[in-house]
Amino acid sequence: MTDRKQAALDILERLIAFDTTSFKSNLALIDYVADYLTGHGIPSNIISDETGNKANLYATIGPRDRGGVALSGHTDVVPVEGQKWTSDPFTLTARGGRLYGRGTSDMKSFIACSLAMVPEMAARSLSLPIHLACSYDEEVGCIGVHGIVNHIQHDGVAPKIVVIGEPTEMSVVNAHKGCYGVNTTFTGLEAHSSATHAGVNAVAYAAEAIVFLQRLGEELKARTPDDDRFDPPFSTVHVGVVHGGTARNIIPRTCEVKWEVRALPGSGEDEEVRERFDAFVDETILPRMQAVHPDAGVSSDVIAHVRPLAPETDSPAETLVKLLTGTNQSHAVSYCTEGGVFQHAGMSAVVCGPGNILQAHKPDEFIETGQIDACLEFLDSLLDHLSA
Ligand SMILES: [Zn+2]
Fold first, then answer.
1. Domain 3-176+308-387, CATH number (from 3.40.190.10, 3.40.630.10, 3.90.1010.10, 2.60.120.10)
2. Catalytic-labelled residue, pool 106, 137, 138, 365
3. pTM over cut 0.85
4. Cα 130 to middle of ligand 1, angstroms
5. Could you tell me which CATH class the domain 179-306 is placed in?
6. Which of 82, 117, 194, 235 has the fewest Cβ atoms within 10 Å of its own Cβ atom?
């Protein structure tokens, strides 16, 4: 085994051991990465959230007066609760050519490979910089990455290219859908269930809104897509959670509905659905609720807004990553990544990383060890390219 690969595996073992499930702090992992970088003479920018319990890390290696390439990965992982694991999810375990552990595919292996290359990055004289971007709270709606983008825009030169190392088995993904998530709360008026005229049934009004969303989804499905590489090839509308009422014989005062739109890039269908939903609520639902109880209301909070990644022909990111991975193919995926956020902020972004998305979020998540080799090879080619 090469020293480089041994380093990547050692670092991965450390990263997996930090339980960075999104609802927990990621600071221990961030401290570890910052200490590691300090050991190689590289300062880190730590960008905390407002609670101080979570942070992003952004570090630059090489010249600081020009764009270069950012390697972007999220540090958080999805929960293991309720899943049956064969071995401890937070102990990297090798079995049959695979490495098991939460975050092995999604996406600590990319971070581990990037960190394993840091000594070589620091030793080379780079003509363009490499930036390391490690975010928090990606899995709950790409929240942390906005702090990184904000930092980039205010404190330095933005990377020209961003590689998001989500698991693609090192193939090039130049397009993904967006994810627009909303919590809508219907607030009515409690009454005895026999007095339907005196109460405002929040569950019943929520049901009307859910049916409206369902019909919008069917309408979007019937449209002809601009990009049929997606599966499914249309924007989707989905209601995931409904929670309302306390007893059969009480008219329910509140009902919460959690829903989302996954829009095709360039379609604007997330905004369209939101506008039409709001209009439906304002014109069809609210007047009837408030005719009985003026304080009745409907409020919607956006809990995730991840922009789609739009394919850009011959974009700097796609051109470079195709060159480095030796492919002329690019793909589209239906899951969200931070790529859309970087692209929306004016940076050229593609998704390319080790591991397979099919292993992500599942019990016994694993990565094939060959994927570590492929990622290190890619990073080595990147270093050659940036040193030239
Ligand atoms: Zn991920």
1. 3.40.630.10
2. 138
3. yes
4. 21
5. alpha beta
6. 82
